[in-house]
Amino acid sequence: MKGDGTLIQQAFLRKNSYQDSVKLMQLTEKMTQLPGVTRAFAVMGTENNKATLTRAGFKPALLEGAGPNDILFAVETGTKEEGLRVWEEYQRALEQETKKDEGKAQVSAASLKSASSLLSGANLSIISVPGQYAAYEAYKALREGLHVHIFSDNVSLEDEIKLKKLGRQKGLLVMGPDCGTSILSGVPICFANSVRRGSIGIVGASGTGIQEVSVLIDRLGAGVSQAIGVGGRDLQDGVGGITSIMALKLLDWDPQTEVIVFLSKLPGKETLGEIRKHLAQLSKPVVVFFLGYNPNEQKGVGQRAKTLEEAAHLAVSLSKKESGPLAFQRDFAALFPRETLDAVRPGQYLRGLYSGGTLAGEAYYLAKKHLQKIEYNPLAPSGHAIFDLGDDQFTQGRPHPMLDPQLRSERLLQEWADPQVAVILLDVVLGFGSSPEASSSLAAAIEQARSKYGGEKIVLASLCGTDRDPQPRQKEQELLQKAGVFVLPSNAAAADAALYLCQTERSNL
Amino acid sequence: MKVRIPKEIRVVNIGLPDFAADLKEAGVDVVHLEWRPPAGGDARVLSLLERLAVKKEEIDSANQKALGRILEGDPTLIDLGLAAEVIPNYPERTLLHAGPPLSWEEMSGPVRGAVIGAVLFEGWAQSPEEAERLAAAGEIKFAPCHHFQAVGPMAGVVAPSMPVFVIENRAFGNKAYASLNEGLGKVLRFGAYGEEVLTRLTWLKDDFYPILKDALGSLEGISINNITSQALQMGDECHNRNKAATALLLRELAPALVETDYKPAAIRSALEFIQGNEHFYLNISMAACKAMLDPARDIPWSTLVVAMARNGTEFGIQLSGLGQRWFTAPALPVEGLYFPGYGPEDANPDLGDSAITETCGIGGFAMASSPAIVQFVGGSSNDALNYTREMYKITLGENGNYTIPNLNFRGTPTGIDLRKVLAKDILPVINTGIAHKEAGIGQIGAGVVNPPRDCFVQALEKMVREMPKK
After folding, report:
1. Could you tell me if B82 and B216 lie in one domain?
2. Which domain holds residue B11?
3. Which of A87-96, A312-321, A411-420 has the lowest mean pLDDT?
């Protein structure tokens, strides 16, 4: 540190070396742990990113000369030397990472054309480039006759509509944009789990929604034929559910599919009518889940599920052609020891720290029915609150909590320090794409919180995963249980358990 | 339409490498694409490219047609003649020059010098001052060589009574023309117009040209494809290095030369002139490229670049689908190696029609054949390979007649596609000489230069404007 305590801002450039922002952020996360660093950002030098850095307080003059193909590393440190050291460290980390990446992919190609010729019969393109470029890549892929799965967000609605119309015309699925999950002919795409193949087809506008339902179907002994992500905006009126309708028809024709599950946020008004029409035309039984919507209000078609858990149970019963339970058992009185129950005092709060958006939403809507007041993503929570930590307001310049657990660990410490907080509710999403350290870092954060702030909090979690995932569920569960976490069989069950604890008069929900 | 999810998913991954890695781990066939922001991150260009993509099928097929015509080309050196006599419609009192059109006022030093020299050579003026006055008064007309199926290196000035090579593309019957290369040192193409220069020009016209014309007359034409393809195997790229090609040409010409009726001493000095000028082949190489590219012109919707040329002030390109129109931007300085005593501050901006070689897939595009050239930019032989490898990314095909030993006899990257240049943000690489900015000093270095990106952007804009409005 300089004697006067002022911080030194520096910016460094690596010309002409494109890297994805996720990679850049993950590595930056590590750099902020180095001595002397107060803040560090690594971005591609686009005008947008430069504006963001300027807003974050970096002098524009520092950022000049960076172009969209240059890595721009802006760092704030106590001394100039520390800044330089971080930059050197960053570059080393980047090179290591690049080498790792080179080894990872089977073959690399320089253009879509050459990629298609390297891989004859390519039929799906997964697109996860920055949003402003994703549409362009998707057009190219569609023109080459490939289905597309667009993971990227920040694609304009106009482009989404155009892409989906083009896809429909060509008989190709446009899954996304902002599509986190699909399972196509048994292949997990992006964030997905290793689930058994079977006769249940899923169409979903939400990534973690598909993950939760497919994982529960697997756990209930059935399997998935296809799970088709459609992207969060497919059911808005502008888009009109183009991909959802294509996917429903496809599953209706598909001889492997016997039962269809339809997962969605509430559709736009016109689209809802259109969707209902198509749902009614299906020749196969269908289970419908609309997030945040009371199924009793909507007299429609199919079996309506209140939770993702219920959707999975209903679908499995239909596929086995026998009636079965609608949910896992909820004997919370037996689950929690007396002292746990007594530890929650009136006036103490629940905080849900979520990595999955739909799971956070599901918990919020369940809680809303039972608690007088609960907030969703508040800036400064004053009572019960559910946070979707993957929301843009939390991830500015930081990796999504499903990719990198650091962000949530910090939040967990913060909540732990709050004596008003009694119950912490978590989701742990396992599977392809997800961080391999999700559970271990949570366990570590809990240990750290305990030793730093003392005080017992009740931590509840559900694990969205199977034992065949890269992070086997059983192992992850043991890790969390060792740290004192109560592990529930589904997100809805975990949320119900949390609500049970927070209610003044406890009754099994 | 019935949509089906394939039984066996085969993935092209664009973006996060981890998704490809996960799939590979799961035993799925996957290719990971090395992605970079398209159009260099220029959102406007990207949206123009997307708009143009509506015409993709028409454009692709037009481009294949254009490329096919280039690849079928059979340029043959058949004759020499005086410019005004052999070039169709050669206008009165007009000098041709390199690059896109420009006026006397806009001309850089070396081009003005060459104009003065040509006016003196034609006898239109008796002194440099008078020549300048005539040019400034608009009494001399100027036109691009390209508008008369001709090409000229550096200033590229062609005067009516200068001898030119006649190249016939035997596949299509079209002809192209180029002046005779004067050698290095004080020469007209670098803007020198002193006594020495005029004496050489007169000798070329009065003594050298008739002998060469005579010799050629006894031959069935000399296949330029043949010489260029051999020269590429011998270390030339046929733009900035023409040692092998010149020797090969000399070998073809020599027997015919000695059979002419001229005195041995005259024949000897003709042979010596060729032997003493390692760039003698350059102008022939250029005219051959011009003859190959012209049949690819005027194919509606083709985005193939049919000309890249510089007039010392501006760089211009022409597109097959957009007729005679030039898309110009200020010429860029050349990055290169300077002769002792000179530096970048002495250099004229990029100059000459010789970029026709790159337009046709040789020169900078065939750098892999000519590692010696890469030394001009301080590069290694590996850099030479990489220059060529990059050019495959912006071209439509490969020329099977011109193969590159160092790339396992892969054909040269041929047919620049405007769309690829902008989408990949890779500009064509051009090998070039560097002229002193003052007339008459001559070549002061050599190096590598790119066309200004803006030429391509303008052409794209025009292409999009040409599209029928819905």
Report:
1. yes
2. 1-35
3. A87-96
Residues 6+ apart with CB under 8 A from A165: A242
- Disruptive mutation site among B23, B33, B59, B395 for chain A (greatest number of A CBs within 10 Å): B33
Task: Name B155's Cβ contacts closer than 8 Å, sequence gap at least 6.
Answer: B97, B98, B110, B111, B113, B114, B115, B188, B189, B190, B191, B312, B351, B352, B435
Find the range with the poorest average confidence among A100-114, A118-132, A394-408, B277-291: A100-114
Instruction: Give a three-class secondary structure readout of A72-137.
Output: EEEEEECCHHHHHHHHHHHHHHHHHHHHHHHHHCCEEECCHHHHHHHCCCCCEEEECCCHHHHHHH
A391 found inside a domain:
yes
Reduce the secondary structure of B363-382 to three states and give it as a string.
HHHHHHHCHHHHHHHCCCHH
Mean pLDDT across the stretch B48-70? 95
B130: in domain: yes
User: Residues 413-442, chain B: which have Cβ within 8 Å of A?
Assistant: 424-425
CATH of the domain at A156: 3.40.50.720
Do the domain assignments include residue B194?
yes
**What residues have CB less than 8 Å from A337, skipping those under 6 apart?**
none
Q: What is the pLDDT of residues B343-387, one digit of tens each?
A: 899 999 999 999 999 999 999 999 999 988 877 766 788 888 989
Same domain, B334 and B459: yes
Instruction: Let me know whether A323 and A210 are in one domain.
Output: yes
Where do we find the tokens 């290369």? B181
Tell whether B217 is within 8 A of chain A (Cβ). Answer: no
**Mind listing the pLDDT tens digit for each residue in A170-203?**
999 999 999 999 999 999 999 999 999 999 999 9
Return the pLDDT at B245: 98
Q: Which domain holds residue A144?
A: 123-178
| Count of domains for chain B | 3
Domain at B66, CATH number = 3.90.1700.10
Three-point CA angle B189, B192, B193, nearest 5°: 110
From B188's Cα to the closest Cα of chain A, the distance in A is 40
